[in-house]
Amino acid sequence: MRKEEESGRPVQIIGIGACVMDTLVSVPSYPKEDTKLRGMDSRAAGGGPVATGLAAAARLGASAGYVGVLADDNGGIFLKEDFRKYGVDTEWIDILPGYRSFSSVIWLAKDTATRTCVYDRGDLPPLKLNERMLAAVKAAEILMIDGNELEAAREACLAARESGVKVLYDCGGLYPGVERLLELTDVMIPSEEFAREYTGCRETVTAAEKLYARYRPEVVVVTCGKEGGILYDGKELFQYPAFPVEAVDTNGAGDVFHGAFAAGMTRGFGYRECCYFASAVSALKCTGMGARESVPDFGTAERFLQAKGIRLKREEA
Description:
The chain has 317 residues and is an alpha/beta fold. The chain has helices at 49-59, 74-85, 131-139, 150-163, 179-182, 192-199, 204-215, 253-266, 271-285, 298-307, and strands spanning 13-16, 20-27, 41-47, 64-66, 68-71, 88-89, 93-96, 103-109, 114-120, 142-145, 166-171, 187-190, 219-223, 229-232, 237-240.
C-alpha cells in the first residue's frame, strides 16, 4: 500500500544521490595512448547510481521520484528530461542557474565487455532539503541513497526512520563519512570491493558478517559481479546466482540491480526473491546498450526467471 502525502504526488521509492550526464562511446578495444581510434557508437545517457536505479524501478512498474539539484546547462536539461522519459517523478528537483553538471565519458570495449569511466563532478552546491522534499521522503515506502549528497541523505534517512520508511543503501563509493549512513540503513547492498575494503576483510562472507554485526541492518546483500552475490540476515547465509547472458554493455548493471531490488520490495517479495529478481533484471539489461533503456519490463524478467525454474513468491502480510 502506498502512503498518502499531504501535498504532492506520493511515490513508492524516493532517491537521493548522484545524477550524471554520461557520454557512452563504444569501441572495438581500448586504444593505445596518443593514438586515434574510430568509435562504433556514441550516445548521451543519464547516469548515477541512485538516478539509474530509480529509472530501473520505474521501468519495472514501481512509482519513483528523485530529490536533488541540477544545473540549467545542457546536461541538467537532458537529465531532467531523461527522468521524465523513464517515468521518474521530477517534482522534487531544483534547477540552479549558472552551474556545471556532473558529467562523465565512458568507453565501452567490445572485446572485453568492460567499461572505463572519466568523470567531472561539476560545481553544483550540496543539496539542501526543504519541507516539501522531506514530506516526499516520509510518504514513500523506500528511500534509496548512494553515498553522494551525504548530509542531505543523512537528514533524509533520519526522517525515513521516524516514518517507518525503509532505507536502501547502494554502497559503491568509499566516501568520507559513509558510516553515518550505514548506521541508518535497513537494506545494505555493497559491492564486493566496498565490503572488503571498508571492513578490511579478505573474504567476502566475513566482510558481510562484519558489516551486519557492526550496523545491524535487516539484511546485507553483497554484489559480486559475474559470481552473483551473497545475502546475510544475521542467521543464514544465502548465495544467489548471476545469470549468464551475451553482454553488450555492462555499464550501470549494479545501479540497475539496486533499483530492481527496491522494485521487488514494493511488490512484496522477500529478500531472497529480490536477489533473484534483481540479478535477472541486471543480466537482461546487459544484453542491450544503455543502463536505462535496456532495462526489461517486469513481465520479461519474470518469464526469464520462470524459464530457469525460479518462481517469485510474495511474502504473506
